[in-house]
Design brief:
The chain contains nine helices and no strands. It is mostly helical.
Length: 202
């Protein structure tokens, strides 16, 4: 019986994901989700209390994994200032970012472009604020390990974080190969790193 329940649960998530991507959150109905999942409308409520709960079940794993990875890679114990490129990103980190983008491309597309009306409606702002705080903490670490580095304003860090969020949105909205994404990151981080070195004087 549990296998049957898991199958129905996954069918609901897949049907909902397709509906959200095609129609957006606002225009998606529980009735259409149930229909496309081949499950009765009343039965769908045995698995999810609301449309928003389904949406969160789809997108929350992506948010959690990406936020957790960024936090971990910028924690003091994981930062090696003797082997740093492009504002804290080493080559293996770039590969991990690309893997996460590939793994959660549809979920990220939902968060960036189809969250209006859901409880994740402010995802871009939440992501920007999160990156701002992580980046600020990183800059404090840099001052600790590289004395004499220049102070960067909080608002500048915020605007750079906002730009990075927009860039990720652009990546997931285009059909790019892994190699093309990697080429872009190399170009972008070379460009960004030169600017950070100039600003911080490191």
């Amino acid at each position: 019986m549990k296998i049957l329940k898991d199958d129905k649960y996954n069918s609901i998530l897949q049907a909902a994901k397709n509906e959200f991507i095609t129609k957006g959150y606002k225009e998606t109905s529980m009735r259409n989700i149930a229909k496309n999942a081949n499950i009765g409308l009343s039965n769908i409520y045995n698995y999810f209390k609301s449309k928003d709960e389904i949406y969160l079940a789809i997108v929350k794993p992506a948010e959690h994994e990406i936020f957790t990875f960024i936090t971990k890679k910028h924690a003091e114990e994981n930062v090696d200032f003797n082997n740093v490129s492009t504002f804290g990103h080493q080559e293996e980190d770039i590969e991990h970012y690309i893997s996460l983008i590939e793994k959660y491309k549809e979920e990220l597309r939902l968060l960036f472009y189809h969250s209006q009306g859901s409880s994740m409606n402010n995802f871009r702002d939440t992501f920007t604020d999160y990156l701002t705080q992580v980046s600020h903490n990183y800059m404090e670490l840099e001052k600790k390990y590289i004395p004499g580095s220049n102070k960067i304003s909080q608002f500048f860090i915020h605007t750079m974080s906002s730009r990075m969020v927009s860039i990720l949105g652009e990546i997931v909205s285009h059909d790019l190969s892994r190699q093309k994404i990697k080429e872009f990151f190399h170009e972008y981080f070379r460009f960004e790193y030169a600017g950070w070195r100039e600003l911080t004087g490191t």
